[in-house]
Amino acid sequence: MIDAFLQGTATVFQPVIFLTICIGVLLGVGVGVTAIGGMVACALFLPFVYHMPPELALSFLVALTSVVFTGGSITAILLGVPGNAPNAATVIDGFPMAQRGEAGRALGAAIGAAMFGAIASVFYAIGMIPVIKPIVLSFRAPEMFMIILLGLSFLAIMAAGSPVKGMISGLLGVLIALIGFQGASGVYRFTFGSFFLSDGLDLNAVVLGIFALTEMFDMLVKGKKTIALEVRKVGLKGVFQGVRDVWVHKWLWFRCTVIGYIVGIVPAIGGNAAMFFAYGHAKQSSRHPEKFGTGVVEGVIGPESANHASAAGDLLTTMAFGIPGSAVMALLMGGFLLVGVTPGPMMIKDSLPLVFTLLVGIAVANALAGTICLLVSPQLMKVSFIRIDYLFLIISSVVFIGAFVSKMSLLNLVVALVFGILGYAMKRFGYSRESLILGLVLGELFEFYLARSLKIFGPTFFMTPTSLVILVCIIAVFVYPWLKGMFSRRSLKGA
Questions:
Q1: pTM for the full model?
Q2: Looking at the 3D structure of the chain, how many domains does it have?
């Protein structure tokens, strides 16, 4: 295994492959900034890898898809536009920081957490290669259902003010997730005869509308002139302060990378859920949870750490079992097959150097992406001082282009606009947009694994060791705030 690791690492630093990774990084960051999304980017560049050597082709695709979230975090913070669906949680506190004139600090925290999170997750993946099979095989339908239930338990926590409004928002998201074809029964639900709705609503269009357009509507209604309400000196000082914040909150960063990696190795869940798992944990474990949503740096560090940590786990599951951990990995599997590599147990056995090449490639790609983004951050921050009149046109164009290319349908523009209006109403009346997205992400999976668990294992499906451990974690999510408040009151009385 050590020889394979050294061979794989040496391959990454071969001039041609390293240059290919650099090209993939530049394209990936650019794609993330433009809100096109990792899936579309992978689909666009997939034909170009045909007939390439496996190491070259797959290194390019892995570099491209693993740094898309880094570019997406830049627009999420500066413009309130999530470059990808997994960047949605970064908007919650990152954009308010930019409005407060702390765009540099938010960018530094996001990029630093992302870069170090991706690198750390590669070491997790390398250490897990010998034991990946029994761990992943332990996640059957009941365990998958319990993990999704754990994610849904964060619905009340996500709401800044009222937990009841958080639950209502989340359940609305679950209801929206039920739109489309239901595989178990073969029934089309809530489609009203529309073929467009048969596959459900596109997540990217919903996220772009409910975050980006909502913020633009809100700023226009309030008559704001620029995104940043305070003018501060643009430079690297604020950026490096954000990087230092990652070190100050190193234990939060570490816990969120572990959360992101574990969620990443679970098939079919991926980074879309990891970000909210991490954000919910960051808020719950904070000493000032009431400030989340107003622009706290922990709200940026948590989700960005998890987003990037999930990539290595996602890739390892795909390579070890031939089971895509996410939609992007399903497309990446097409790249594997195009160059003659079949993901699965035999790949770990017969092509271990290639496995290490791709995992180390993730670390190198994110290190390059992080360095580049940190250096250009002072120039990017100037976006916060552009007049809203001009920005509205630019952001609307980016949102509608991103929504269109995600599903190649003009009706996706209507979806983005409708959710932009809905998001503004939710923000106006104190309902949680984040909870709605979390419910939308997990709703369909919740229904699928609940039905499968009941059918195969019966009503006591949760009585397995792994499920019971997860059940304890779910109970802890609800009990922890009460215990925390009780001990705080006791300490105040003692003082």
A1: 0.74
A2: 1
